[in-house]
Structures are given as C-alpha cells and as structure tokens.
Amino acid sequence: MPNSKDDVYGDHISHKFNDELMELKTEFLKMGGVVESQVEQAIQALMDSDGQLAEQVRARDKDVDQMERGLDEEATLIIARRQPTARDLRLVVSVIKMVADLERVGDEAKKIAKLALKLAEEGQAPRGYVEVRHIGNHVLGMLHDALDAFARLDSEQALRIMKEDKWVDEEYQAAARTLLTFMMEDTRNISRCMSVMWVLRALERVGDHACNIAENVIFMVKGEDVRHTPMEEAEKVVGR
C-alpha cells in the first residue's frame, strides 16, 4: 500500500501549528509548479525557436528566487517558534533542502532559455532536438512525480523516481555520444551542437534534483537518510 495514507503531519494539539505546516507544504508545491512550468516552457522555447518565450522563462527566475527566500524564512520561523519534535523537524528540514533543489531546477531552466535564445539567433542545430524532447519529457515526469510523492508522502513512488535517475544518465550519455560523433564528422556544426549538449546537461541535472527531492520524501516518511546508499538499501528502508 502506498504511504499516502500515513500522513501524520497534521495532528497537533495546536491548530495554529497544523496550519503553519500545511501552509509550508502548500507554498512548496506552488513553487514546484512554477519551476516545473519553467522547464517545460524553456524546452518549448528551444524547440520552437521562440525568443519571447525564452525571455519569459528567464524573467520568471526572480519569482522563483523570491519564493525560495519566503519558504526558507517560513521554515526557520517554524523551527524557532515551535521547536518541533523529530517527526515535524524532518518535514521542515526536508522542505528547506528541497526548496534549494527547486531553485536549482529553476536555474537550469534559465540556462536552457538562454541557450534557446542563442540558437534562435544562430539557427537551429542540425542534431539533438529529438534527444532534447525525449530526455526533457523524462525529467519533467520525474519532477512532477517527485512533487506528487511529496504531496502524498508516498515513499514507494519516491523510490521509483530514484531508480529512474540511472536511466536518465544513460540517455544523456547516449545523446552526448551521438552529438560528439556528428561534430567530428562536420566541424561547422560544433558551436550549435555544443549549445544543444549544454541543454542536455541541464536536463540531466533537473533529473538529479528530482531524485534529491525523492530521497528527502523517503527521509520524511521513514526517518532514514537514503542519500549515497545502494539502491538495495533504499528498497529495504521503503519496504519496512
């Protein structure tokens, strides 16, 4: 059974504390939605050579930074005012860590938007766009599922996201090899193909941050840190 039914973050004597924790979760998910949209629009701007959309993505980065500061402040105030016990402290500390990951995803989206503008001016690269779409869809799915796992406190879904990170790494490496081969065959395409390579690298990093969020969900639910542990150990933690 998924762990969504085990949401114990919301049964405090103080209704005010319940409200504060719920607000923290809500604001985090709102930031996640903004960042997810940033990545999706950055990819679309690249595929369509849409400079205006790329500029919108870059401008939205200020909103993400502001949301990060607001959530950090809110989490810090909860710790100072409520002195939460271990269970609640895991939630608050995990949110602080996951907010940092979301902010970095926003940074990656801004990089993609910047490269989309560069390629729109130079002319589309002759190769790599199919790979961008494929890997982009994959990491967007991971990010969406990581946010959903957080919302439902579903450690089993979080574990599935962790497993997908390996597949994204393999997809990125295969795409990079294809582009390198093409650049060696025709050096006139090096500059534009390198821009696509950096886009693929940014998308691979988005997948890494989605994986980090998933690891923190498992920590929230199970109380054990699965970072830097073999997948077999993470599976045992989730299965307990």
Automatic annotation (TrEMBL):
A single Pfam family it belongs to is PhoU
Q: Give the PhoU domain ranges.
A: 29-115, 132-217
The record's annotation in InterPro entries points to: PhoU (IPR028366), PhoU-like_sf (IPR038078), PhoU_dom (IPR026022)
Keywords attached to this Swiss-Prot or TrEMBL record, sorted alphabetically, are:
Cytoplasm, Phosphate transport, Transport
**Gene Ontology cellular component terms for the protein in this record:** cytoplasm
Instruction: From the UniProt record, give one GO term of the biological process aspect.
Output: intracellular phosphate ion homeostasis
Q: Where in the cell is it found?
A: Cytoplasm
Q: What is its main location?
A: cytoplasm
Give a short account of what the protein does.
Plays a role in the regulation of phosphate uptake.
Q: How is this protein organized at the quaternary level?
A: Homodimer.
The family assignment reads: Belongs to the PhoU family.
Write down what this protein is called.
Phosphate-specific transport system accessory protein PhoU
Q: Look up and give the organism this protein is from.
A: Marinobacter lutaoensis
